[in-house]
């Protein structure tokens, strides 16, 4: 007789039920009788999960330190890991503190229900841990963070003011940008009226209210339209990298697709002078996106098919006076005891915000007599006809420029030689100003830049190390510099032949733009007054016919620049006629084919030679430069002839940050040490160089006389890490005694893989060391137990100025570190702004009480950022003593004042820790 199992459908169902029942029974037996093994497996997975969590946390901390944003799924994983960890700790605690497994206490009969529950819970938690471990490994195998895209916002030097007279204009522009009425919007008005500032405010508000997905800005300018340059500016703001660097059509196609992919975009074209071929550039007029342009002329806006045009007019008298008075200050106006005088001066600004800023700042702290003189000068000022610059504007700008003292004026005129609307690198300005001897010293140039900024004659720009010049200031400045015979600046563009111009030969400082690859020079052309020459080569090969350099018989400064991003300019000419040349700079030039002579590659009377980002002949022989005082080679590692550096016995500054090699005919030979030659430069005051770890630093005294230095031993220096510091040293795996003198007087110190406590040993022998230290970074120095401490005698007799200027302290992966400072040293850290401690497993306190405290408060008043990551044994910020790490003394001020007012990050340490 057939059973239920023989029925096709019911049979399969019965089999499934029976299999499940058997499996459940066996699982139950496994939970009851194998619970100890299951718990051991669970504990093993807990260990693995903890290790995986540590690895993820370490990588997350490193990415955060690099300024990156952590992916959301990584944060989610860490939160899940924290929950699982809490759950497993409770389970482990329950298992550890179990009272008894017996059903009846007096009989040895186990409780099967308790065993079953324990085994089942262990299996479930083990499965969760296994999933967590697997997902953690998957995280680490991929990118867990992404760079923070810099916020694309305008960088304006002045605050936007909402003038009543311009509210309607602003409202009309805002409506055009936020509705579908006009794809192309134009702002026009006379120069200096505030078109660009209004455009920037529209940009800022649209970004704040998220009207557009992306913003892109390009400065067009008056000069010939450079399509590739415009494309480059827009692409940078979009984050687009071109596949082709010199094909405008290919770039246009890629740029167009990038803009379409970006969605709703605002493209800003500033200072437009002509019709812009949008399609050829690659700017589509897609639905929702907008194009906003500024121009001086209404017809230019109409020619670019602007549907909405808004004219910006000068401010009415009352608003102009209010702005003028706000800048000068009411108290200063009152001190003149003649408000009408100030109003008359304000009236000369014509209601133009640019002139109001320039004039008011120039007179802000002047006496009554200076105000009277200013008014007279503005009323009778001579006018030079400059296209698109009105007489009143010219007079005001010229007056403000004439008020500058010599060095500030020279810096401004050098800025006027740069192309219109270009970003001016401050480093380049320094080289031009000091090389031409118009301004003496880098610090002086920087000071003059600050002066010009505060006078509103120079503007900030998006790049931190660059400045900009308003086109009106540039136009008037060029007019003054070109016409004043004492200055005699000139800017000439040359195609194939240099013209024999009577005015040209009187020039003293010349910028020469070469568009032809072979320039012909008139045989009788001579420029006896020219002392400084700045050449821009726009070709891949640049050569000259005739006696080009012979006509500059008194030239003292030469700056040659390859003016193309995609290739270096290969130079083919001889420099030997320049017998009086003292400073020579090559930037982005290929010198491998430059005419060499038996005398040498460069003129022998050179005092300064700078070779920047180019190609050099190998080996480089500079042995004829007996008068050389400054040598700078940046952007490449160079091979130099033996005994070349040591022969430059007058050298005072040697800057080769990538280091150099001594040339050898035998390619298999061991590289010769470079320090042997550098050590013979007895006049050396400034050294910027990279050494190999193998360099023989013993018996070296060349470092004792250095006043400026940037030295790296081992790995390459971190780009931009200590640009602002005049003295810095980075050591990897090297702790030579001869370098300790540099360490203790440097502003920036970075130590890595060093097996002794360099800082501590220096401080023990000289408690007055590190008085100039601003930044200290230490990594993987595992023998270091503390950073610095003082004895009782030293505390009483030391002025305690060490570390008093320290603003940033970062300690990473120091496995032996127990604490950083004694409290006497910690009291000196009044300027500390940033404290980062990562992966120091035995660290128990930040500050160790040396017994000198008498109730004084350790106050880190400037601390802005604190990060403590992977410091599991940290119990207190300050311990009573180094032997008993316990709760801190009451006299120490709590670090956390109930409300944290600085960036704070904790990772991997007990939350029950006391912080003081």
From TrEMBL:
Residues covered by the Disease resistance protein At4g27190-like leucine-rich repeats domain: 797-885
Any one GO molecular-function label of the UniProt entry: ATP binding
GO biological-process terms attached to the record: defense response
Domain NB-ARC: from-to ranges: 167-331
Swiss-Prot/TrEMBL keywords: ATP-binding, Leucine-rich repeat, Nucleotide-binding, Plant defense, Repeat
Pfam families (alphabetical): LRR_RPS2, NB-ARC
Domain of life of the source: Eukaryota
Family, similarity comment: Belongs to the disease resistance NB-LRR family.
Protein name per Swiss-Prot or TrEMBL: NB-ARC domain-containing protein
High-level lineage: Eukaryota, Viridiplantae, Streptophyta, Embryophyta, Tracheophyta
């Amino acid at each position: 007789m057939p059973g239920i199992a023989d029925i096709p459908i019911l049979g399969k169902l019965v089999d499934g039920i029976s299999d499940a029942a058997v499996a459940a029974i066996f699982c139950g037996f496994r939970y009851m009788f194998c619970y100890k093994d299951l718990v051991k497996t669970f504990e093993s997975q807990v260990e693995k999960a903890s290790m995986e969590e540590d690895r993820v946390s370490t990588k997350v901390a490193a990415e955060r330190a690099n300024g990156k944003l952590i992916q959301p799924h990584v944060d989610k994983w860490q939160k899940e890991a924290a929950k699982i960890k809490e759950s497993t700790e409770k389970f482990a605690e329950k298992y550890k503190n179990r009272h008894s497994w017996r059903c009846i206490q007096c009989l040895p009969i186990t409780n099967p229900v308790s065993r079953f529950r324990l085994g089942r819970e262990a299996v479930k938690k083990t499965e969760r841990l296994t999933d967590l471990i697997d997902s953690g490994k998957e995280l680490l195998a991929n990118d867990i963070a992404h760079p923070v895209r810099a916020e694309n916002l305008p960088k304006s030097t002045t605050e936007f003011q909402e003038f009543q007279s311009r509210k309607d204009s602003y409202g009309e522009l805002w409506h055009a940008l936020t509705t579908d009425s006009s794809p192309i919007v134009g702002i026009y008005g006379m120069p200096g009226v505030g078109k660009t500032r209004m455009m920037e405010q529209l940009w800022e508000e649209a970004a704040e209210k998220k009207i557009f997905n992306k913003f892109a800005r390009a400065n067009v300018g008056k000069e010939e339209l450079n399509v590739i340059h415009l494309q480059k500016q827009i692409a940078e703001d979009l984050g687009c990298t071109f596949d082709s660097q010199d094909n405008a059509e290919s770039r246009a196609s890629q740029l167009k697709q990038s803009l379409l992919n970006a969605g709703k975009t605002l493209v800003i074209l500033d200072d437009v002078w002509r019709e812009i071929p949008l399609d050829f550039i690659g700017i589509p007029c897609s639905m929702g996106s907008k194009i906003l342009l500024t121009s001086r002329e209404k017809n230019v806006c109409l020619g670019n098919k602007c549907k909405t045009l808004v004219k910006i007019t000068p401010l009415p008298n009352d608003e102009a006076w209010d702005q003028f008075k706000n800048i000068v200050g009411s108290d200063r106006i009152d001190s003149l005891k003649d408000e009408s005088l100030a109003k008359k001066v304000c009236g000369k600004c014509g209601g133009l915000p640019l002139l109001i800023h320039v004039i008011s700042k120039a007179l802000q702290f002047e006496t009554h007599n200076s105000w009277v003189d200013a008014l007279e000068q503005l009323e009778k000022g001579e006018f030079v006809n400059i296209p698109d610059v009105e007489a009143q504007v010219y007079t005001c700008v010229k007056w403000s420029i004439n008020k500058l003292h010599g060095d500030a004026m020279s810096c401004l005129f050098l800025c006027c030689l740069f192309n219109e609307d270009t970003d001016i690198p401050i480093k380049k300005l320094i080289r031009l100003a000091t090389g031409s001897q118009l301004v003496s010293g880098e610090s002086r140039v920087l000071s003059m830049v600050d002066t010009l900024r505060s006078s509103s004659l120079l503007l900030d720009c998006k790049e931190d190390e660059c400045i900009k010049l308003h086109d009106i200031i540039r136009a008037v400045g060029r007019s003054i510099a070109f016409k004043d015979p004492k200055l005699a600046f000139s800017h000439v563009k040359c195609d194939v032949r240099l013209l024999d111009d009577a005015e040209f030969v009187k020039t003293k400082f010349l910028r020469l733009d070469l568009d032809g690859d072979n320039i012909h020079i008139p045989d009788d052309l001579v420029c006896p007054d020219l002392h400084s020459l700045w050449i821009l080569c726009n070709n891949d090969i640049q050569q000259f016919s005739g006696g080009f350099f012979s006509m500059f018989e008194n030239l003292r400064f030469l700056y040659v620049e390859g003016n193309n991003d995609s290739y270096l300019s290969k130079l083919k000419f001889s420099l030997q006629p320049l017998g009086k040349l003292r400073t020579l700079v090559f930037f982005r030039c290929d010198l491998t084919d430059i005419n060499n002579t038996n005398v040498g590659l460069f003129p022998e009377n050179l005092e300064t030679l700078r070779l920047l980002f180019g190609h050099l002949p190998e080996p480089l022989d500079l042995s004829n430069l007996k008068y050389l005082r400054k040598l700078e080679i940046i952007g490449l590692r160079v091979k130099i002839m033996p005994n070349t550096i040591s022969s430059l016995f007058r050298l005072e500054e040697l800057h080769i940050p990538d280091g150099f090699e001594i040339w050898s005919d035998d390619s298999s030979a061991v590289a010769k040490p470079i320090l042997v030659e550098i050590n013979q430069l007895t006049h050396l005051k400034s050294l910027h160089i990279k050494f190999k770890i193998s360099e023989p630093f013993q018996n070296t005294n060349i470092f004792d006389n250095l006043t400026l230095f940037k030295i790296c031993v081992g790995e390459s220096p971190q780009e931009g890490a200590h640009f602002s510091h005049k003295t810095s040293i980075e050591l990897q795996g090297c702790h030579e005694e001869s370098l300790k003198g540099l360490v203790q007087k440097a502003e920036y110190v970075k130590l890595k893989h060093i097996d002794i406590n360099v800082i501590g040993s220096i401080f023990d022998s000289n408690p007055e060391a590190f008085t100039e230290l601003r930044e200290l970074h230490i990594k993987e120095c595992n023998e270091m137990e503390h950073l610095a401490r003082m004895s009782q005698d030293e505390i009483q007799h030391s002025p305690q100025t060490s570390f008093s200027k320290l603003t940033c302290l970062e300690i990473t992966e120091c496995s032996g570190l127990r604490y950083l400072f004694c409290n006497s040293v910690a009291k000196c850290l009044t300027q500390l702004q940033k404290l980062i401690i990562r992966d120091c497993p035995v660290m128990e306190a930040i500050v160790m009480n040396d017994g000198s405290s008498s109730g004084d408060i350790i106050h880190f008043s400037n601390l802005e950022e604190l990060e403590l990551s992977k410091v599991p044994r940290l119990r207190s910020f300050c311990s009573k003593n180094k032997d008993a790490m316990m709760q801190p003394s009451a006299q120490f001020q709590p670090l956390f004042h109930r409300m944290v007012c600085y960036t704070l990050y904790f990772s991997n340490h007990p939350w029950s820790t006391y912080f003081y």
